[in-house]
Design brief:
eight-stranded mixed sheet
Length: 287
């Protein structure tokens, strides 16, 4: 871990007073709802630093921007600005509105993060669980960026963490087949319903649908735990589609992790997933 820390600081440039850090909370990125806010964590004296854009998990129904565990300090200590966002939740809004919230927050970062010491042209988009689906979609479907006035080329890397919805039709078929085979009730508010109960919408909200060459899609580091066949299969599916389009994709398995701990341990000393993540950050920010 120390080795990668040194590499990262060399690659990004040392930050003076690295442990003197500040947070600005509840910055509005839109005005339609009280949840359309974000927090910015920045090292003291930050200027033109790369930015991590973090999307919380919670099944699109719960969660908030405070669910960051060790991440803000870990990334600031490495010389990055860290942004954590809220978005509106199901079922108060539909998935389209929720997804546009995330795009709006990215648009805000593009326009405003320089004021907080961030470089809007060097962005890493990350998210856990449902946030991983949203992160992957933002990094593959360039319509969101175009609507907010930015290009995928400003995103240097994408890191979805233990998500199971990069290919939504596949996960729906898997869950419903499993229920039928085991004579269990079909989900009444599963992925089929959350994403609109319309097969066209299921495809449209799937990152794999939008992967193509020459769109500026960034390299991916796809993290998942060993104990969940669905997140593992979805990680491999996304990686295969990306690689087929000539886009770098690496899958890293958290061997001893749970769905919660693979996320909460990011930034912890000697955490093997964190070591892989920081090595990825160094590599993509060189490009």
């Amino acid at each position: 871990m120390k080795h990668f820390t040194c590499l990262l600081l060399v690659a990004l440039g040392c930050v003076s007073a690295a442990h003197a850090q500040s947070v600005t909370r509840d910055i509005p990125y839109a005005t339609a709802h009280e949840r359309q806010v974000l927090d910015v964590y920045a090292p003291a004296g930050a200027k033109n630093l790369p930015v991590v854009f973090w999307i919380h998990g919670g099944g699109w129904q719960t969660g908030n921007k405070s669910m960051v565990a060790l991440k803000p300090k870990a990334f600031m200590d490495q010389g990055l600005v860290f942004v954590s966002i809220n978005h509106r939740l199901l079922p108060t809004v539909d998935m389209g509105a929720l997804t546009r919230d995330v795009a709006s927050a990215l648009g805000w970062v593009h326009k405003n993060i320089a004021t907080y010491g961030g470089d809007p042209t060097r962005l890493l988009v990350m998210g856990h669980s449902s946030g991983g689906q949203l992160a992957a979609l933002m990094c593959t479907d360039d319509r969101y960026g175009k609507a907010e006035g930015f290009s995928l080329t400003m995103i240097k890397g994408c890191v979805p963490v233990d998500a199971d919805t990069f290919d939504i039709p596949a996960i729906i078929e898997m869950a419903e087949t499993r229920a039928r085979v085991h004579h269990l009730p079909l989900p009444t508010y599963g992925h089929r319903q959350k994403f609109g109960d319309d097969p066209a919408k299921h495809r449209d909200f799937s990152a794999v649908t939008h992967v193509a060459r020459n769109k500026g899609i960034p390299p991916f580091l796809i993290l998942h735990i060993a104990g969940n066949p669905d997140t593992g299969a979805q990680a491999q599916r996304l990686a295969a589609v990306l690689e087929h389009a000539g886009i770098s994709a690496k899958v890293v398995v958290g061997r001893e992790a749970t769905h919660a701990s693979i996320n909460d341990n990011i930034g912890a000393p000697n955490d093997p997933v964190t070591t892989e993540l920081f090595a990825f950050v160094v590599e993509v920010l060189k490009r």
